[in-house]
Amino acid sequence: MVPVKRLVWALAAAGVLGLGGGVVGALALTKGESAPPVVAALSTQTAPVVTTPPQAAQPLPTALAPDFAQITARNGPAVVNISVSGSVKTGQRGPQALPEMDPNDPFYQFFRRFQIPGQPGGERSMPVRGQGSGFIVSEDGVILTNAHVIKDAQEVTVKLTDRREFPAKVLGSDPRTDVAVLKIEAKNLPTLKLGSSQELRVGEWVLAIGSPFGFENSVSAGVVSAKGRALPDDSFVPFIQTDVAVNPGNSGGPLFNARGEVVGINSQIYSQSGGYQGISFAIPIEVATRVQQQIQKGGRAQHARLGVVIQDVNQAFADSFKLERPAGALVSSVEPGGPADKAGLKPGDVILKFNDQPIIASSDLPARLGQATPGERASLEVWRQGRRESLNATLGDASEQRQAQAEVEAQAPTGKLGLALRPLQPGERGKQREGLLVEEVSGAAQRAGVQPGDVLLAVNGNKVASVEQVREAVAAAEKSVALLVLRGGQQIFVPVRIG
Q: How far apart are CA 423 and CA 434, in angstroms?
């Protein structure tokens, strides 16, 4: 075999390659080196020509993976396994289970005495057992976990990595954020360092430690997939989405950043099988510590309340309200006498900012409210009648019982919407003094979901008192209109494309 260098010179001597160029130059460039100008002597040229090879492409900086082994060794002892036991009631109470059975019937006493589930007097307790994870945040035994891990638990046991077990007391739990605080009687326990989820970047490495399916102190790693993810469960949590493999039993365990700091609590997965399918969600550590402080101080967590019913803003709504893009929380109804009502919010307003933080999806608003305090004065930026307005609201307490929904006067349309409308008759009005009853639906309105029996209250946020007003509002619209309708006691906006 001919050595490469000797082969190159041989080819150059034969006139196939120019000296100093060709393969030699190519080899130099593949190593990322900048070659000096060379002289290429080709047989077809009568004079040497000086050429400068192109600069080699600069490689992207290589991001080294964190030392997962070191993070695990340093923090593993502070991650605990939590086992719970309890019971739940099954069946129904008393003779209501079989209302057709006469209490004097001899079989009634039989069912009641033997406590057959679902029969008269057949309520009984069923044992419940479960496992989850948690982590120690103070040397004297304060532990954070998920609220759903200890739900319905009568006994909670915490097991450390050194195999010691302790009965735990539940200091409090908050289902709205899915955070619970436990306490065990121990001293000088290992603890974890808390970081900041705000500093996390999408694509950054993260690591989870927990007990999936009971396999204690299992480690899995991945990256941050998204931040501030709002889930459709009326949650007050802006979740961290990751692709870290977590499964039942991981709930309540810590999520670490590349520096080994806790940035979240693993809480939920998106799955159609019951197991991990590539998407998991963690509660930001700032949310968890806020709940922890409130529980340790007052025994319960507090969340603010604005007193509105909201909808998402899609492109049709954005066109109807003349918004630059579909963003914000569309107010469909306002609780009478509530914080929003007192602040001047109205149905048809679109909340764009809450305390200077943008509201992109409607689910962002509950997450922002969850971080506010009852009694706090919040600033709101709303879109109303084609312009921005600023309002201030004194927030209420979400734990208070909701008052009755707002009653709003309104009217309805026809025309190219595909609606057959008529005024409400005195016997149909009830508390609704005005409005146009939808008798028949076709065309654009039917495709949008308007139903016979709906009461149309407003078009594009403007109340309408006659069919003529509806026609004028529809004629002035370009692509779509937003209809505020009353259905089953609830007010909702329905976008209808008319373009």
A: 8
Consecutive H or E run containing 38: strand 38-40
Which of the residues 85, 87, 148, 271 is marked catalytic?
148
**Residue 332 is among the residues annotated as catalytic for this protein:** no
Q: Could you tell me how many residues make up the chain?
A: 499
Is there a catalytic annotation at residue 148?
A: yes
**Amino acid letter, residue 106:** P
Q: Which of 133, 173, 174, 178 is catalytic?
A: 178
For residues 333 and 152, give the distance between their C-alpha atoms in angstroms, rounded to a whole number.
Answer: 35
What gap in Å lies between CA 268 and CA 271, rounded to an integer? 9
Is the whole model's pTM more than 0.85, yes or no?
no
Q: How far is 308 from 321, CA to CA, in rounded Å?
A: 19
Candidate list 197, 251, 280, 480, residue with the active-site label: 251
Over the stretch 251-301, which tens digit does the pLDDT of each residue have? 999 999 999 999 999 999 988 887 888 999 999 999 999 999 999 998 888
Catalytic-residue membership of 319: no
pLDDT at 24: 36
- d(C-alpha 294, C-alpha 12), whole Å: 81
Taking the C-alpha atoms of residue 248 and residue 269, their distance in angstroms, rounded to an integer, is 9
